Amino acid sequence: MTLRSIVVKIGSSSVTRSTGPDPVVLTSALDAALNARSRGWNVVLVSSGAVASGSAYLARTSEIGSSGRLAAAVGQPFLMDIYRSVSEVSGRHVCQVLISESDLKSPRAMSSVCAVLDECGRAGVIPIVNGNDVTDMRGSDNDGIAVGLAVSSGADKLLLLTDVPGVQDSGVQLSDLAAADTRSVQTSKAGTGRGGMRSKLRAAELAAYNGIETHIASARLPGVITRCVQGEPVGTRIMVARERFPAESRWISGVAMSHGSIVINRPAEESIRAGASLFASGIKKVDGNFGGGDVIEVITPSGRLVARGVSKVSATLMGLIRAMRTDEIAVVMTEILDKFLRGAAPGGSAHDREEFTGLRAPLVKALGLVESHGYELTRKLALEVMNLFPSATVEAMLDTRRDEGLRHLRERYSRLSSDLSFIDRQRLVVF
User: Which of 232, 253, 274 is the last residue of a domain?
Assistant: First the structure.
């Protein structure tokens, strides 16, 4: 018999009290996971609460303040002790899987995690997953981990349990929510967890665009996990937006952490949906601090998610040359190299020279930013430009006539930029 699968994430505000882990909630969750097996479902439990549990214990037993990392290290065994004691009564087994932020950046690591989860399913072992707050300096994003596991393992459902009955918008409880509407819901950050409702809605959005139905519900709703696997309405359902992607596309479509986003105009959206590349002229806004090779989101001005892909350039460079023509891109790039070659000394920028008169305001602004950059940022941008167009750059730098070389390079960059796609077309997943 082929078992269906569900990933259940329980938030910190649900699994912990002021004195530590809440055994009632944890016991109920594990009992339901064990029961779901007999109903033809494998359950992966993503259980938050290690930091809150450890903090509560250390506050009672230690006079010295503790870090979140120490609290996580102390609290994790408490969580597992409760889960293990419940599983032993039933004669079943549990295991612990800790996932770090570095794992979410590695397709190979997540493939190994999924292989272990698959083995757990065959052996009847319930995996208890948590983010590794000891190694993740910013704290773990268990909502992101839950949807990453759901997408990469091809789960049928995602259940995000929290301390509220579901999603509310303008005071109204929502029973159903479309993926395209998740970003317009007004939310507030509350509770002891890291992400709050906004984080859960982002996870649900990704799940929906990867063919997975999501429910956001109260962890204290009686029988919530059992009711969900039986198909009963619980909390707020975020409906499936499309069929799931093939396995080779899932890393980008929903597993990898997003490092930022870009807002594109309507022609650019139509272009990438038709299979074309994304050029600078279509980029309206850049958010985040991503680098070349990072996964980013592509959204519309209204906030609707269009695609996810791997950026070819950094947020800094993309922000400088967005919405520009190819000849303007060439000016910015050559000025970056020129400043780097003269050691980032002030003065002599393009907008001060006679050959650059009547520039458009966006280009003038970009050149001003280039001139204001310190040496280290200039060096990083220069290396980035060189890596984009290595042959043309080296040829110009070997020209002993500096001004002539830069002018020639500007012409080469202008031609080459006409084919410069800012997201790797082979690593772009359009929803």
Answer: 253
The confidence score (pLDDT) of residue 396 equals 67
* 270 and 384 in a common domain: yes
User: Which pLDDT does position 92 carry in this prediction?
Assistant: 81
pLDDT tens digits along 106-140: 889 999 999 999 999 899 899 999 999 888 867 67
Q: Do 157 and 229 touch, CB atoms closer than 8 A?
A: yes
User: Which residue, among 58, 56, 152, has the nearest Cα to 97 in the 3D structure?
Assistant: 152
* Cα dihedral 121, 154, 205, 278 sign: positive
Question: Which two structure tokens, joined as six digits, stand for 29?
Answer: 């969750």
Domain that holds residue 190: 4-253
Confidence grade of residue 213 (pLDDT, cut at 50, 70, 90): very high
Phi-psi region of 300 (alpha: psi -120 to 50; beta: other; left: phi over 0): beta
Same domain, yes or no, for 239 and 303?
no
- Do 368 and 241 belong to one domain? no
Q: What is the pLDDT of residues 237-287, one digit of tens each?
A: 999 999 999 988 999 999 998 999 999 999 999 999 999 999 999 999 999
Q: What is the pLDDT at residue 192?
A: 45
Please state, in angstroms and rounded to a whole number, the distance separating the CA atoms of residues 311 and 421.
9
Q: Any idea which residue has 């220069």 for tokens?
A: 382
- Transcribe 163-232 into DSSP letters: SSSS-EETTEE-SEE-GGGGGGS-----SSSSSHHHHHHHHHHHHHTTT-EEEEEETTSTTHHHHHHTT-
Q: Which of 56-70, 274-288, 294-308, 407-421 has the lowest mean pLDDT?
A: 56-70
Q: What is the pLDDT of residue 304?
A: 92
**What's the CATH code of the domain at 332?**
2.30.130.10
Distance, in Å, from the CA atom of 37 to the CA atom of 426, rounded to the nearest integer, reads 39
* Other beta carbons within 10 Å of 172: 8
- Strand pairing class (295-299; 260-264): parallel
- For residue 191, name the pLDDT band (cuts at 50, 70, 90): very low
| Neighbour-count burial of 403, counting CB atoms closer than 10 A to its CB (0-12 exposed, 13-18 middle, 19+ buried) | exposed
Distances (CA, A) of 33 to 72, 116, 127, 373, 409: 24, 17, 10, 55, 63
Percentage, residues of the chain above pLDDT 70: 91
Q: Name the percent of the chain in helix, strand, coil, to the closest 5.
A: 50, 20, 30
Angle between helix axes 68-90 and 23-38 (nearest 10 degrees) is 50
Residue where a domain stops, chosen among 253, 285, 303 = 253
Distances (CA, A) of 215 to 73, 160, 174, 199, 202: 30, 6, 11, 14, 13
